[in-house]
Design goal:
Layout (H helix, E strand, L loop, with lengths): L4 E6 L6 H13 L10 H10 L3 E8 L2 E11 L2 E4 L20 H8 L3 E7 L7 E9 L5 H11 L1 H18 L2 E7 L2 H18 L9 H9 L9 E9 L2 E11 L2 E9 L8 H14 L5 E6 L5 H4 L2 E11 L10 H9 L5 H17 L3 H28 L6
Parallel strand pairs: 4-5, 10-11
Antiparallel strand pairs: 1-2, 2-3, 3-4, 5-12, 6-11, 6-12, 7-8, 8-9, 9-10
Helix pairs in contact: 2-7, 4-5, 10-11, 10-12, 11-12
């Protein structure tokens, strides 16, 4: 980039119509920005709900060259909608936007924390998101290829479908649902899951659930929207998933299923049925986000590389120095980079959700207690059975 680069910080609702038109042109020019999270509609809705939301407008010699929607938590700048924003970066024409380090310098915050940065960056950790790139011929062609490649796995899921129907009754699947009561049911099930697994409850803060409800109301604005798909067996809800979609991309976001039916894989069956139904109306890329769940490797045939980083203001410690993170570190065994990464991500979710320092510290204390409990349980298991590894 040449010339003087400056930044103007505005509220999301103050974005002029001409800038929104430019924003859309930038998205159209760069396939790497195809995710619904980059759409101005997402910024508009999230900006009205997430506390301390803003858009950084980057200008070079007076000309707008990029946009970065973000939020501030304490001394940390994060992508707008974090921890639920699965893709973020500067919206710009290819090769014209500032890199991550320049963004951090211009925003002049103690920390800029990103988990899935799309764009240029230096000192970062690369991660990959997984997706299904479906052929133009649609679901049946994709499924035939997957079943040939992973025959045992998909035959098992076909048996699971038959078992679910035999045990519970006829299976029905509905897509494009926007019932607020169904969303409340999904959130309640998700919160139960967080409690069972000891993860931070991202819906406890309130604004995150409000954001999901608000996004459900955006259908009809261009081709951007949010909706749910649900699977019923014998009239009983057994799985539901909330997704974002724009253009030809469908982003699976919040899945949940009835845990007592896990042996029948209702969540996986719902994902397959959702892809089948959505492909019939033109969707061709189905984004599963980061890996971790084993089933994704059987589905996905494409990846996108993103970057995770915490950029510190010069002069500050390059480590994770927050006292709350120290609590989390102390709660587990220090096992090098893997533990450090886990602690960083756990703290990032707490920091993004909670909007006051006291609530952030409370979240860190609760997470530390969970980590200590898990550590004690593993130690007791090793004492009871020395063959069990740590």
């Amino acid at each position: 980039m040449t010339g003087t680069l400056e930044v103007e910080i505005i509220r999301p609702e103050a974005l002029p119509p001409a800038d929104e038109t430019l924003w859309r042109a930038m998205l159209a020019a760069d396939p790497a920005l195809a995710s619904p999270y980059f759409r101005p509609e997402f910024t508009r809705v999230a900006g009205a709900i997430s506390p301390d939301a803003a858009v950084a407008v980057f200008k070079q010699d007076g000309k707008t060259v990029g946009f970065f929607p973000h939020q501030t938590r304490g001394g940390t700048i994060q992508p707008l909608g974090a921890p639920m924003n699965d893709y973020h970066g500067v919206v710009a024409f290819p090769g014209q936007g500032p890199d991550l380090e320049t963004v951090a310098r211009l925003l002049d915050a103690p920390r800029l924390r990103v988990s899935a940065w799309v764009g240029e960056a230096e000192a970062t950790e690369e991660r990959q998101t997984l997706m299904v790139s479906m052929p133009e011929d649609g679901f049946d062609v994709w499924y035939a290829e997957r079943r040939t490649t992973w025959g045992k796995y998909f035959k098992d899921k076909e048996r699971a479908r038959r078992s679910l129907e035999a045990e519970q009754g006829p299976i029905t699947v509905q897509r494009n649902l926007r019932d607020p009561a169904l969303l409340d049911q999904l959130i309640a099930l998700k919160r139960e899951q967080y409690k069972r697994t000891g993860r931070h409850d991202i819906f406890d803060c309130g604004w995150t659930a409000e954001l999901l409800h608000a996004l459900l109301k955006t259908e009809g604005e261009d081709d951007f929207g949010a909706s749910m798909a649900a699977m019923y067996a014998g009239g009983k809800l057994v799985a539901v998933e909330y997704s974002l979609h724009a253009g030809g991309r469908y982003h699976f976001w919040f899945p949940v299923y009835e845990p007592s039916l896990a042996r029948c894989s209702p969540g996986i069956l719902l994902s397959m049925d959702t892809m089948r139904l959505a492909s019939e109306v033109g969707y061709r890329v189905f984004d599963f986000g980061f890996g971790g769940e084993g089933y994704k490797k059987y589905f996905c045939n494409a990846v996108q590389t993103v970057r995770e980083a915490v950029v510190m203001r010069p002069g500050l410690s390059s480590g994770i120095s927050n006292a709350a993170v120290g609590l989390l570190n102390a709660a587990g065994k220090r096992r090098g980079d893997r533990l450090r990464t886990s602690v960083r991500r756990r703290w990032a979710a707490i920091e993004a959700c909670e909007t006051t320092s006291m609530d952030r510290l409370k979240g860190a204390v609760e997470a530390a207690q969970v980590a200590l409990s898990k550590g004690k349980a593993r130690a007791a298991q090793r004492l009871a059975d020395p063959a069990v590894s740590g």
